Recover the amino acids of this structure.
């Protein structure tokens, strides 16, 4: 039997049946024991013995038979008056076996289950014995059967509901695991239970989310790599056919492929394995100053200037290198599209428990329908640009996912003129 539902139901049903049998047996035993301890049997039998003896001694067998006949009209069972050796004084039959049984049982019922019981009273002089073979009414137990059946049904219903409550979520979990195993990465249990089964279901959901993220990142990476490698490989093939320019072209394309692979690995790490990061307490204003200083040379080479507003002192927890690369990607992207003799404005401020970094250029901006897409890997507003004019289309994607790893948010908006990119990172609770 492999079904948990069947096992639980069977064990509960067996427990219920045994409990009912034990309940009936104990009820009979207790009722008989109470009757025996109260002495009612003994007192009644002694009184009946005196009356039967008086009837026999005063009126003989005829009067004794009349007395026993009256008892039969009101009492169930058989009554016998015997001499000291067990001979029935009315019929002459030998009742010594009943006498021996009564003496052996000590005037207690012979069985716990419903059935005849024998009690006996002996006269003080030992000449007579009064033996009563009592037969309980046939309806004594059966009259209570509907109540027992009602209790049995109620408990059985509760047992069935319990088994269903345990087995159903396990079956749902098994179906979800099967769906996930066949390739449906969106399969989730979404259990609202608060017990161990709910904990197991939520643990599976977290695992499925993690695996789904890793597989999706891997698929996206393979697609993007295959797409981006076409142009460099085509140029390498062309350069190989023209030997005079082959060396310079090969070096240039190899460097581009190296940069492409390194950038793709950053995307995969940020998106697929956030637990590999090493969070630490760091001063965000100092990190921003460092990034601006590193990018200042590139800005001057392009004929623009980086303007860093006075920053507030804010501390966050995160991976220093990952955050540095994210901010640097945003700043370098603004420098790339900033017109000559313009400024790239960088600012850090506190916003309701978060640290907000805003970077704005004064370039052409981005069409409104493309604002959300610029954070997708390999997306370029102008499809005609290649990696030499418009980059690989990975800088903002890396930054977006790095910020997401730190439970932050990132968005872009047109500033008329130019594009403004904002990064929000949560501040520690003690700092709010």
């Amino acid at each position: 039997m492999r079904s948990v539902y069947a096992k639980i139901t069977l064990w509960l049903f067996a427990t219920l049946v045994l409990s009912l049998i034990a309940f009936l047996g104990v009820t009979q035993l207790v009722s008989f024991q109470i009757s025996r301890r109260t002495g009612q049997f003994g007192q009644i039998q002694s009184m009946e013995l005196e009356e039967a003896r008086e009837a026999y001694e005063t009126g003989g067998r005829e009067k004794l038979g009349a007395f026993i006949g009256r008892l039969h009209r009101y009492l169930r069972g058989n009554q016998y008056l015997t001499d000291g050796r067990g001979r029935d004084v009315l019929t002459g039959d030998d009742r010594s076996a009943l006498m021996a049984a009564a003496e052996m049982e000590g005037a207690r019922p012979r069985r716990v289950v419903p059935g005849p019981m024998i009690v006996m009273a002996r006269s003080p002089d030992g000449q007579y014995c009064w033996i009563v073979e009592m037969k309980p009414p046939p309806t004594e137990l059966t009259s209570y059967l509907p109540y027992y059946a009602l209790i049995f049904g109620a408990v059985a219903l509760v047992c069935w509901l319990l088994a269903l409550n345990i087995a159903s979520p396990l079956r749902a979990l098994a179906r979800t695991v099967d769906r996930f195993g066949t390739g449906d990465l969106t399969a989730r249990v979404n259990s609202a239970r608060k017990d161990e089964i709910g904990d197991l279901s939520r643990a599976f959901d977290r695992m499925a989310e993690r695996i789904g993220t890793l597989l999706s990142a891997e698929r996206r990476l393979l697609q993007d790599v295959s797409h981006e490698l076409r142009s460099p490989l085509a140029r390498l093939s062309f350069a190989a056919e023209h030997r005079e320019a082959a060396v310079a072209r090969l070096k240039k394309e190899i460097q581009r492929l190296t940069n492409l692979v390194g950038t793709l690995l950053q995307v995969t790490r940020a998106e697929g394995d956030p637990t590999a990061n090493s969070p630490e307490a760091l001063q965000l204003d100092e990190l921003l100053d460092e990034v601006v200083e590193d990018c200042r040379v590139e800005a001057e080479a392009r004929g623009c200037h980086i303007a860093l507003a006075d920053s507030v002192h804010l501390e966050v927890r995160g991976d220093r290198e990952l955050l540095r690369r994210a901010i640097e990607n945003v700043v370098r992207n603004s420098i790339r599209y900033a017109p000559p003799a313009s400024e790239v404005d960088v600012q850090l401020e506190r916003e309701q428990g978060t640290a907000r970094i805003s970077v704005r250029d004064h370039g052409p901006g981005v069409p409104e329908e493309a604002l959300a897409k610029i954070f997708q890997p390999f997306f370029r507003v102008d499809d005609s640009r290649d990696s030499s004019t418009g980059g690989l289309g990975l800088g903002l994607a890396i930054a977006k996912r790095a910020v997401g790893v730190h439970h932050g948010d990132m968005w872009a908006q047109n500033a008329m003129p130019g594009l403004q990119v904002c990064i929000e990172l949560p501040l520690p609770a003690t700092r709010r």
The mean pLDDT is 78.
